[in-house]
Design brief:
The protein is built from eight helices and 18 strands. By secondary structure, the protein is an alpha/beta fold. The chain has three domains: 78 residues, OB fold (Dihydrolipoamide Acetyltransferase, E2P) (Beta Barrel); 202 residues, Vaccinia Virus protein VP39 (Rossmann fold, 3-Layer(aba) Sandwich), CATH 3.40.50; 62 residues, no CATH class. The chain is globular, with a radius of gyration of 24 Å. The N terminus is likely disordered.
Length: 399
């Protein structure tokens, strides 16, 4: 066991191989945090055993209680920080570590960006076999706190306290953390939280969406729109730059939602088609298009797996780009296969989950069909484990 790691539980019997036994649930360990895993947990080692510890950062020396032990790794609860690492900073939110919304408030913002870049690079190398040179530095958010324009708050009856908890799901269980405000929400949403608490739901188990409507856009209550207005212009500029660089004339915006990308990029192409399964979102997209007097495109309601085989062959694939912005689970295999078969000149993939993004890009690039030109990450979710990426794929070879 390295000198830098001290086991503070009672000594265990030595096995025949003269090696220390594996730690057990309940053991107290002093650990040095050496890495930050995707998902936000600090990483430490005791011998060949890896321990993941939430709310720690590289450079920390910490007192940890083991809460879970598997064959080669375990998880621990942070008891206290013995020595703070150089990147540790004071969290701004009083509910941090209890509320499950944020994972990184204890890490300096510039360091958050560096660690997210490393996590994306590691994921792309491990999951997709991609080179680190394809991953650009993470574009920072100009406002790392007070940026969220949409939050989901919950009510839950707290039996022991005999009161209604109003807030967000805790980090350590499925119960609700009672909160007065949210440090990453826009100020007007915190005012809405105050009003919501003054007029609480009639019972527990209810969810309420508090949202700031984007100016100039029609967005139905349950339809998707990016939750960070402050970095959204940079995200759009990033997509536009890659689209213009390819020189294509036609754009297919798949999972288009209320039409944000297709409408915003309409002036960069001769024609566009938006596809979305959410019928209210498609109606909103058509209204957003009408409000802007844009006439060089259309929006179609339907499943991408069904519509793509019909739509893509209509136009010259050498002059076409497909923009994908799916949910966190990524694209379904039929859609990926249609893209490989049809071979549009460019695929722009916008994703808030680097792991599923790397998985899908590996499928698209298999056999040299596409090459990964660039991945540009955008920190749309400061203080959290999440990050938005724009991947640019270019057609590279035949099937």
């Amino acid at each position: 066991m390295p000198d830098s790691i001290v086991q503070t539980s009672d000594p265990a019997p030595q096995p025949a191989a003269n090696r220390p036994t594996r730690p057990a649930v309940g053991d107290r360990l002093t650990l040095d945090i050496i890495d930050l895993a995707f998902g936000g947990e600090g990483v430490a080692r005791t011998g060949d055993f890896v321990v993941f510890v939430p709310f720690t950062c590289p450079g920390d020396r910490v007192d940890v209680k083991l809460t879970e032990v598997k064959s080669s790794f375990g998880r621990g609860q942070l008891i206290r920080v013995l020595t703070a690492g150089p990147e540790r900073t004071e969290p701004r939110c009083e509910y941090f570590t209890e509320c499950g919304g944020c994972q990184y408030q204890h890490i300096d913002y510039a360091a958050q960006l560096r660690w997210k870049h490393k996590q994306i690079t590691d994921l792309f190398r491990r999951v997709g076999g991609f080179e680190a040179t394809a991953i650009s530095p993470v574009v920072p958010c100009p406002q790392p706190y007070g940026y969220r324009n949409r939050i989901l708050v919950r009510s839950q009856w707290n039996g022991p306290a005999k009161k209604l908890n109003l807030g967000f799901v805790r980090s350590d269980c499925g119960l609700v953390c009672d909160v007065q405000s949210c440090a990453i929400a826009e100020p007007s949403l915190n005012e809405a939280i105050t009003q919501w608490r003054r007029n609480p739901p009639p019972k527990g188990g209810l969810k309420t969406v508090l949202r700031i409507p984007p100016e100039g856009w029609v967005v139905p209550e349950h339809s998707f729109f990016q939750n960070n207005f402050f970095l959204l212009p940079a995200l759009l500029d990033g997509v536009r730059s890659r689209l213009k660089d390819s020189g294509v004339q036609h754009l297919f915006d798949v999972y288009c939602g209320v039409g944000f990308f297709a409408i915003s990029l309409a002036d960069a192409v001769k024609s566009f088609t938006g596809v979305e399964l959410d019928a209210p979102a498609i109606r909103a997209a058509r209204k957003n298009q009408e409000n802007r007097s844009i006439t060089n495109g259309e929006f179609l309601a339907g499943d991408a797996d069904c519509l793509l085989p019909q739509l893509l062959p209509r136009l010259d694939p050498t002059q076409s780009a497909v923009l994908l912005d799916p949910p966190r689970v990524g694209c379904r295999p039929p859609s990926l296969e249609v893209l490989r078969q049809t071979g549009p000149a460019q695929i722009l993939y916008v994703s808030c989950h680097p792991a599923t993004l790397a998985r899908d890009l590996k499928i698209l690039c298999a056999g040299g069909r596409y090459r990964l030109a660039q991945v540009e990450p955008f920190d749309m979710f400061p203080q959290t484990q999440h990050v938005e990426c724009v991947a640019d794929l270019r057609l590279a070879g035949p099937l």
